[in-house]
Amino acid sequence: MCDLMPASKPAEKIGKMKKLRRTLSESFRSIAFKKEDSGFDEICVTKMSTRSCQGTDSVIKPLDTIPEDKKVRVQRTQSGFDPFEKPASQVKRVHSENNACISAKSSSSGKESPKLRRHSSPSSPTSPKFGKADSYEKLEKLGEGSYATVYKGKSKVNGKLVALKVIRLQEEEGTPFTAIREASLLKGLKHSNIVLLHDIIHTKETLTLVFEYVHTDLCQYMDKHPGGLHPDNVKLFLFQLLRGLSYIHQRYILHRDLKPQNLLIGDTGELKLADFGLARAKSVPSHTYSNEVVTLWYRPPDVLLGSTDYSTCLDMWGVGCIFIEMIQGVAAFPGMKDIQDQLERIFLVLGTPSEDTWPSVSSLPHFKPDRFTVYSAKKLRQAWNKLGYVDHAEELASRFLQCFPKNRLSAQAALNQEYFSNLPPRLWELQDMSSIFTVPNVKLQTESGDSIQVCARRNSHGKASSGSKH
Prior knowledge:
By secondary structure, the protein is of the alpha+beta class. Helices cover 27% and strands 13% of the residues.
């Protein structure tokens, strides 16, 4: 089950917040002078100024401040990025090893090729390098938000496709808090079901995050296959979503913005969590969380009622909503008006809460019993009939969609539910960076006579703006 975090101290003053944000912005600016030949040094940030979406100002410290007795090892690359699938242990000396190979070949032939020498030299101004803006070519615009634009691009270092998230910097405001969060958290996350941050490029005008390029997202995939996805594909997508969430939750990180647009789908069906702009390190002592997180349709009732005291349960409600949407083909709770309307849609299915069904619900800021119609709880298949066609689907969905946060199933526990019992046992033995599609006979089923590799619409790569509504 999910455990809640106790509420912490009040928010810092706005003035101090802005000062810390400027400090962090300067730390990004200093990266340009600390680059190594294979990339650039780890960004050292002792105080990170952040601000929740329309919510409380707060200060986040590095994840290393997690208490030793609860600390989970977080892998970090020595150079602060993953140079396109090279293991972190090989990154630091990649150029020197290449030079050694070239020298060995040259000595055997008696002389060194000028062409090889020019392109292998770390100090050569003509050789493209990681951490340099001119090392990437923009191919086309994928999306634009309030503070960033996302482009499809190509690396001049190795020719691979990338997604370039170009964040515009303001002289007075400094680096946007969402970019700070996304870069700092993703630098330490290495998992096949989490989008990979390859590189960070900082200039006076922009901060560019360079991601692996992924072809589409779950929202577009469902749009292309209306009426609900193939049950086997739903199971594989959900398994990967839970696998990625289990990984970040074990590292004390909340995503806080789960929705189909933020789940990228590769051409083989690999699902990747993306857009960590609203993510938070929950184990670090910080100020009370904001209740203005998660797109409305996927926001849990406790947060809708004003709770700022939450943990991994927040993400698990979103999992339940996405699970039902994949099966049924429509959003679970598509509120059309406001928070009141969203809550009414939830209570219509799950029942209007009371102190008996949800201890301490009356203490939540926005819970006023006279404002809500009293509904009794229904079976989920009465609202979403297709849940009844798939073994154990209704049971699992009901474990996610619990109004009382502590009753929601955790990601790790969900992976061991009966719903997944017909999947190959090897899926539970995979290493973090191994895709589920490396296991024999694990593949997506054809949807409506079409293949996932044919996608008509372009993806937004998690979109440039985290707060957009569905």
